[in-house]
Amino acid sequence: MRLRAWSRIGSLMTLAALTAVTTTANAQARPATSQQRIPVQKESAGDVARRDSAARADSIAAAEAARRDSIARAEAAARQDSITKAEMARRDSIARADSMAAAAAAAAAAAARRDSIAREDSIRNAALAAQAALARKGFFFGLAGGYSSPSGDYSDAFKSGYNITLPFGWQRRSSRWGIRGDIAYDSHSGKSFQQDGPPPVIAAPVGSEQVTSNFDVDNGNVWSGNVDGIVDLAKWGADRLSSFYLIGGGGIHLFNKKNVTVTPLEPSQGTGTPLPVTTYESESQTKFGLNGGAGLAFALGRSSLFVESRYFTAYTDNTNSEWIPIILDVKWR
Questions:
Q1: pTM of the shown model
Q2: Fold of domain 142-332
Q3: Could you tell me which of 187, 184, 182, 185 has the C-alpha nearest to residue 150?
């Protein structure tokens, strides 16, 4: 019994010693605490529930805002993609339209060019056909021009000038004979000269016929319409377009009016009074005349080039008017 009692006492003392040691160690390890008491207010279960509900609502609102932002960004991105695709489609459509318009314009230009070429070919072929038909029938026309020189009494009042002639006619290649018409214009420069009385080709005022005077004559122009026969003395070449020929015939000649200034150098006989300076205009004349000459033609493909000279005589008042043109002509068949 005593052993048990001592055993219990020992156990209690041991337990008390361990408890004291543990308490001392915990006191040393725990920091010093304030002696002031902090009032602690206990929250009720309702407040905690409200805070939890508000936190959940905030979380839900934040999630909803994030979802709306995500949807808005997705919709904006989708709209931007749609706009971009629409713009690209519009540009592609414009590019295709431009390409189609350019292709249509190019096709129209090519068609117009083909039509133009076809028209030019048609016109050229028609002209060649007409030329060939006229050549087979013997028709020809030409353009000529060159030098023209007055002769005889006509040269007393006029100097050399120029000639322009438009010939046309008919002559078969196989024939030596042909007929030709032409319209010609001859221009001759007027002279200034001194003599007793005017030359026969110019009418003068009454009273100046026997007075020594200076005469200033304006240019003289002659329009002519002629019809001539042609005979080839010689023909050569593959198409027999080269030839030496004679030409002759007649025509009508129109002489224009001429201004003449007469300055007397001495008084008229028996009066002793000098005559005044007189400027007058001679009358125009339309007279018949004859012509004849020769020419030399050289073949130039379907055409020919010829040099020709004729002697013209017109039966004007007081005296004949005569001139000699030397012309170079291109004749087409």
A1: 0.57
A2: Porin (2.40.160)
A3: 187
